[in-house]
Amino acid sequence: MGCAGSSQSKPDGTVKKIRKPKPWKHPQPITKTQLTQLRDEFWDTAPHYGGRKEIWDALRAAAEADLTLAQAIVDSAGVIVQSSDLTVCYDERGAKYELPKYVLSEPTNLIRDS
To answer: Which residue windows does the record flag with biased composition (Polar residues) (predicted)?
Structure first.
């Protein structure tokens, strides 16, 4: 038995299904190259802010996968999904993992590189 809330199952026994974040807009229009650079910088530095590297790796794989595969990744890694868009997750030890929307989806004002 774990602590209350230590499972990603809801009280009715269903697992919280992940979904893509709602559409969002970057403060300034951003190119695909700039978005990729922002994402790489986040994933390179994220483990230094706490949590376990293997959970960060699983979250990155989930963020870069389609929804079905992402669900399988977070389930198998034991990630507890607080926000169904993956912006807030926890591991089994209670460490919090916060993901910015820019690693989970593209902004509405993305400039396609030519």
So the answer is: 1-11
Q: Is the pLDDT of residue 26 over 50?
A: yes
Query: Roughly how many angstroms between the first and final C-alpha of the chain, as a whole number?
Result: 54
Of 3 and 51, which is predicted with more confidence? 51
> What are the structure tokens assigned to 14, written together?
């269903």
3-class SS of residue 96: strand
Token pair, residue 64, equals 């870069």
Decide: 31 and 113 in contact? Cβ < 8 Å: yes
Q: Are 20 and 35 spatial neighbours (Cβ–Cβ below 8 Å)?
A: no
Q: Which amino acid is at 5?
A: G
Does the reported pTM lie above 0.85?
no
Q: Which residues contact 90 (CB under 8 A, 6 or more apart)?
A: 79, 80, 82, 96, 97
DSSP secondary structure letters along 21-32 = PPP---SS-EEH
Helix (H) or strand (E) run with residue 40 in it: helix 32-45
